[in-house]
Amino acid sequence: MLAIWFVFNPAGTGQSWIYTQGSYDPLSSSVTLPAFLETGGRFPPNFNSSTLTRTPWGLLTLTFADCSNGTAAWASNPASAAAGYGDVSFPIRRVTSLAGTSCP
């Protein structure tokens, strides 16, 4: 599973990229993965991978009620919470699907 989430920082003054990837059990309706805050990126031609930093941010949990609906929830680690990122949960819904695929 891969999730990349573009948001603004808690103050609304800068961009934040929150990233997670990992394995999941296809027989389970929920997955919890460690999430990281990615910083230091620049738009090409000024991109330099050596300037990227990956700071532990917290945990992201995705829970699916069915093939089109679910919940995203996150729990910030203490440093992220101190920076103003709180713990939140909200509904998610599929908006597209890959041609030729079906829901199990």
Give structural notes.
- The protein is mostly beta strands.
- It has one helix at 78-82, and strands at residues 2-8, 15-21, 30-39, 53-64, 69-76, 88-93.
- The protein has a six-stranded antiparallel sheet with strand order 1-2-3-4-5-6.
- A hairpin with a 6-residue loop joins β1 (2-8) and β2.
SSE-based structural type: mainly beta
As a percent range, the share of helical residues equals under 10%
What sequence of helices (H) and strands (E) makes up the elements? EEEEEHE
Largest sheet: 6 strands, antiparallel
- Strand residue percentage: over 45%
Which features characterize this protein?
104 residues, mainly beta, 1 helix, 5% helix, globular
Give a short synopsis of this structure.
With 104 residues, this protein is mainly β. It is built from 1 helix and 6 strands, in the order βββββαβ. The protein has one helix at residues 78-82, and strands at residues 2-8, 15-21, 30-39, 53-64, 69-76, 88-93.
Topology:
Elements: E1 2-8, E2 15-21, E3 30-39, E4 53-64, E5 69-76, H1 78-82, E6 88-93
Antiparallel strand pairs: 1-2, 2-3, 3-4, 4-5, 5-6
